[in-house]
Design a protein that fits this description.
Blueprint: H1 4-26, H2 31-42, E1 51-53, H3 66-74, E2 91-104, E3 107-118, E4 124-135, E5 141-149
Parallel strand pairs: 1-5
Antiparallel strand pairs: 2-3, 3-4, 4-5
Length: 154
């Protein structure tokens, strides 16, 4: 069974990974490799599809493969022309505000807000999320569903 603390630990590490990708980008390093490692570490593409709905897209908003997720994080994929590289914005901090989670056996769903602080110290961007977690064959907690979007603004 998945523990609540495991979800919080995974969220914290995921946020740190997003910050790391941006830092590698700023240092003119191999940010694409950093993003690939991030996806391998946190998402369960190794065992099939992941339901991935990133924040700032409207044309091809649902992604089920590794390449779709990678494009969102770093851009540069002509199959996803609206992707500009969310992780290479870059960000200096990601803070999570969990509203609740539901754990059923080997699957957990968490939802709430996460807040992204730009590296240059600008405004904090509030994003709503729902993530589902499951264990992979090696017993590691992985994301099986990533759904995020900006709050509704009439």
């Amino acid at each position: 069974m998945i523990a609540e603390q495991s979800i919080q630990d995974a969220q914290k590490a995921w946020g740190e990974g997003i910050v790391k990708i941006g830092k590698v980008f700023l240092e003119k390093g191999d940010y694409r490799a950093a993003a690939e490692q991030h996806i391998h570490q946190f998402y369960n593409y190794q065992e099939g599809i992941v339901l991935f709905k990133p924040t700032l897209v409207s044309e091809r908003q649902f992604r089920t493969d590794f390449e779709g997720a990678l494009s969102y994080f770093v851009g540069g994929n002509s199959d996803y022309p609206e992707d500009h590289g969310f992780a290479i914005k870059p960000w200096s901090d990601v803070r999570w505000e969990n509203i609740g989670s539901k754990i059923v056996g080997d699957m957990a769903v968490a939802m709430g807000n996460y807040f992204f602080t730009t590296a240059e110290g600008g405004d904090v961007v509030k994003v709503e999320y729902s993530f589902a977690y499951t264990f992979n064959a090696d017993g590691q907690l992985k994301i099986a569903l990533h759904d995020s979007h900006l709050p509704y603004s009439p």
